[in-house]
Design brief:
- The chain has a single domain, classed as HIT-like (HIT family, subunit A), CATH 3.30.428.10.
- The chain is of the alpha+beta class.
- Helix 2 crosses helix 3.
- The protein is built from three helices and five strands.
- A five-stranded antiparallel beta sheet has the order 1-2-3-5-4.
Length: 132
C-alpha cells in the first residue's frame, strides 16, 4: 500500500509544495512545529532512510540543503534544524525546521494550526527563494 507521501507525490493528496525535482519533493508539514516546517522526501518509496541507496541518500541531503537555504532566506530564524525520525510515516523523510530557540525543535510541543491561506503564502515565499 502506498504511503501518504507516495499519494502526495502522485497528486492524489494536495500539499503546500516548496520545491521539486525529478527525484525529490519538499512540502510544508501540515502540523508544523514552527512556520515553515518542511518535509523533504525522495520520490521513491523507501520506509527507512538508511535503506536508501548511497547516491539517493546523498542526493536527498543535497536537495535538503538547497531547501534549507531557501527556508533560511524566507523565514525569520537563526537556524534551520534537521531531524530524521521516520516512525510516523513509512516513507523516508527529513524534517527541516526554522528555529531561533532550542525549545522550538521539541516534537512534544503543541503543533501550529495555520489557516490554508497562510500555509500557501509561506510555501510560495520559500519556493521563490529555492534555487536548484
Amino acid at each position: 500500500m502506498a504511503s501518504i507521501f507516495s499519494r502526495i507525490i502522485a497528486g492524489e493528496i494536495p500539499c503546500y509544495k516548496v520545491a521539486e525535482t525529478a527525484n525529490f519533493l519538499a512540502f510544508l508539514d501540515i502540523r508544523p512545529l514552527t512556520k515553515g516546517h518542511t518535509l523533504v522526501i525522495p520520490k521513491i518509496e523507501e520506509d527507512y532512510i538508511f535503506d536508501l541507496a548511497d547516491a539517493e541518500f546523498a542526493n536527498l541531503h543535497v536537495f535538503s540543503k538547497q531547501v534549507a537555504m531557501a527556508l533560511k532566506q524566507a523565514i525569520p530564524c537563526l537556524r534551520v534544524g534537521v531531524c530524521v525520525m521516520g516512525l510516523e510515516v513509512p516513507h523516508a523523510h527529513i524534517h527541516l525546521i526554522p528555529f531561533s530557540q532550542m525549545e522550538e525543535m521539541n516534537f512534544a510541543n503543541p503543533k501550529l494550526d495555520l489557516p490554508s491561506e497562510e500555509m500557501q503564502t509561506i510555501a510560495n515565499t520559500i519556493a521563490a527563494h529555492f534555487k536548484n
